[in-house]
Specification:
Order of helices and strands of chain B: EEEHEEHEHHHEHEHEEHEHEEHEHHH
Distance between the termini of chain B: 39 Å
Radius of gyration of chain B: 23 Å
Largest sheet of chain A: none
Strand content of chain A: under 5%
Strand content of chain B: 25-35%
Largest interface: A-B, 42 and 52 residues
Oligomer: heterodimer
Shape of chain A: elongated
Structural class of chain B: alpha/beta
Order of helices and strands of chain A: HHHHHHHHHHH
Radius of gyration of chain A: 21 Å
Low-confidence stretches of chain A: 1-10
Number of strands of chain A: 0
Largest sheet of chain B: 6 strands, mixed
Structural class of chain A: mainly alpha
Mean pLDDT of chain A: 89
Number of strands of chain B: 14
Distance between the termini of chain A: 36 Å
Low-confidence stretches of chain B: 329-340
């Protein structure tokens, strides 16, 4: 019964109505990628933001490198791994926007009433966010190089730093997605941006070496995922890589990302139960 | 062997938390519904009656607080995944991504349901042709007219050849031309074998034209069911309608009670205007006596009309209030929307 009726309406089923999880996830990811590319403003801002940061922080805080306790090297080279991590943090805070838009428009209703895996809706969106974070990361490293930063760790160091930034992105995008699905309100995401991300930036070693932080900030910064990712980036991009640090901080970030991602999938189910 | 009933729902109850100390909102209050396979079934009621909530329970989006439902032979809770594979759902909102083109929206939906890339593009092309969207196929959905977007929504519901298609207020917000075009599409769908269409509407005319069977829903319950003709046939004779100006309802009732040949008298008053509606075996014969009796009692009136029974009369009888007054007090569903 795959023939068409006279009016041309399909009567045949599509392969039994079942797509693999990977195929669904890939399709969801593709959809969000196309959406992103068709919103040039959003894309433009996410590229321009790190440029502004590198120029602003790089100039305003330049003299930090002359403060005793900063250590060897110039501030820009010190700054780039921090800006790399900050970039994915600030983009990630908005990752849930698409879900709120889908809930508002009715797209979410249609998807949830179809045989699509709930976790693939979350995972596909996360995959797109990570793709974007990777592109942003490469751009940040490129701009940093043009501005004068030097990466002594070579290609391997850059790859390790990018992987760390993606783990951090996974955690924060999932946080944003979970909050979006639970609060269903754009203003809640503004809350993440101001209450979580902004303080996290200053309670970390992204902009300031640990030796120059006040002691209470230093003890908070030790538990800050932004610090973990920045530490990985800095050591991996230096001549003398501390692989122990990369391993421990990498493990912490992986566990965190996995936990928050699981929470975001649970939030999708909670959302449906509330309907 | 397909089930003979596309939808069987028994005693559906759905409550939403009222929030901030308010009592729970009871959107469905023991709703029971049967839809024979292969028919177009209308869920008719004013805004807030519980039509959309019913649709959301039947499409597995919402879970009923009590009661059971089977769609295409599958339980909506225990076998939600099989239900989802057997249905298409066109919600009140748009179901399409406005940044994608109609073709991309259709192909994505097919892909998510397991079609290969080429099969999904074929299916998209078929549906675009079928719904007259071929010329707009590669423009962004967001720039299309309301009528085109609504057609795309219905096409999206048909991507995987469902057994049951749910259309939640498919023509709300469309201009008359687009509405007529959508009606033609739905009638064409109705002609297809094996497709059951469950349609919610608050337009009496729409239900009358499209539905084989109707369930009239009021305050979360089905208050009457049958074909439009059956429902109207329960009203032998004509309907007499008299518009009233600043009426005294009790006086009008007592006057009407004294007129031979008037039955089922309903007087309802909204602000300064009122209306007398009554059943009569012979409409033209009672017009004169009615006017005379009202004028003798000093009741000011406007137009007097006689009509064949309409679904509005059916609704008035079963819901105990007129369509227009029910529409102006959309209590339940709006509160539920807020609670969500």
């Amino acid at each position: 019964m795959s023939a068409l009726t006279q009016t041309g309406t399909p009567t045949g089923r599509l392969t039994g109505g079942r797509a693999s999880w990977a195929m669904q996830t890939a399709e969801v990811c593709r959809r969000w990628t196309v959406d992103l590319v068709r919103q040039p403003w959003g894309l433009g801002v996410s590229v321009i933001q790190p440029v502004i940061w590198i120029v602003l922080f790089g100039n305003v805080f330049q003299s930090i490198a002359t403060v005793p306790g900063f250590g060897p090297g110039d501030y820009l080279t010190f700054l780039v791994p921090g800006i790399l991590m900050m970039t994915v943090l600030y983009s990630g805070a908005w990752a849930g926007t698409g879900f709120i838009e889908d809930i508002r428009s009715g797209v979410m209703d249609r998807l949830l009433s179809s045989p699509v895996s709930r976790s693939s809706l979350v995972a596909g969106q996360l995959a797109q966010q990570l793709l974007m974070a990777a592109v942003q990361g490469v751009i940040v490293l490129g701009i940093g190089w043009l501005a004068g930063a030097r990466y002594d760790g070579g290609v391997l160091g850059l790859v390790v730093a990018l992987v760390a930034s993606l783990l951090l992105a996974a955690a924060f995008c999932s946080l944003s997605a979970a909050v979006a699905l639970l609060a269903r309100d754009q203003t809640a995401l503004i809350g993440i941006s101001t209450i979580v991300v902004l303080p996290a930036t200053f309670l970390s070693t992204a902009l300031m070496p640990v030796a120059l932080l006040p002691s209470w900030v230093e003890s908070v910064a030790r538990y800050n995922p932004l610090t973990w990712a920045t530490e990985i980036g800095r050591t991996a991009m230096s001549t003398d890589v501390d692989w122990g640090l990369v391993a421990t901080r990498g493990a912490l970030l992986t566990v965190l990302a996995a936990l928050v991602a699981a929470w975001s999938v649970a939030a999708m189910r909670t959302y449906q139960k509330s309907l | 062997m397909p089930p003979t009933h596309a939808v069987e729902a028994t005693g559906l109850v759905k409550t939403y938390p009222g929030g901030r100390g308010r009592p729970d909102v009871r959107a469905l209050d023991g709703l029971t519904l049967t839809v024979p396979a292969g028919t177009v079934h209308g869920l008719l009621g004013p805004n807030g009656a519980g039509k959309s909530t019913t649709t959301r329970v039947l499409t597995t989006l919402s879970r009923a607080s009590a009661g059971e439902a089977r769609v295409a032979g599958h339980d909506v809770v225990r076998h939600a995944d099989q239900v989802r594979r057997s249905i298409g759902y066109v919600s009140q909102g748009t179901g399409a991504d406005v940044l994608l083109t109609p073709r991309e929206n259709l192909a994505m939906t097919a892909r998510l349901r397991g079609a290969s890339r080429s099969a999904s593009l074929d299916r998209a092309a078929e549906l675009l042709d079928r719904f007259g969207l071929a010329d707009a196929a590669d423009r962004r959905t967001g720039v299309l007219s309301g009528g085109m977007r609504r057609k795309l929504d219905v096409a999206l519901g048909l991507v995987d050849a469902p057994q049951v298609l749910f259309l939640d207020e498919p023509t709300t917000g469309l201009d008359p031309e687009a509405r007529a075009s959508m009606w033609a599409e739905i009638r064409r769908l109705a002609g297809e074998d094996a497709l059951t269409v469950v349609l919610t509407t608050h337009y009496l005319e729409e239900a009358d034209r499209l539905a084989d069977g109707l369930s009239i829903i009021d305050r979360g319950r089905v208050v009457a069911a049958g074909s439009p003709d059956e429902l109207k046939a329960a009203f032998a004779g004509d309907t007499l309608t008299v518009d009233l100006v600043e009426p005294d309802a009790d006086l009008v009732r007592s006057v009407a009670a004294g007129i031979a040949g008037l039955g089922d008298v309903v007087v309802h008053v909204e602000g300064p205007a009122g209306r007398l509606v009554a059943r009569t075996p012979d409409g033209p014969a009672v017009v004169g006596p009615t006017i005379a009796a009202l004028q003798a009692a000093g009741v000011r009136h406007g137009a007097v009309g006689v009509s064949r029974p309409t679904l509005d009369d059916v609704y008035l009888r079963h819901a105990g209030r007129s369509w227009t007054s029910a529409e102006s007090a959309p209590a339940v569903e709006t509160a539920a929307e807020v609670a969500r």
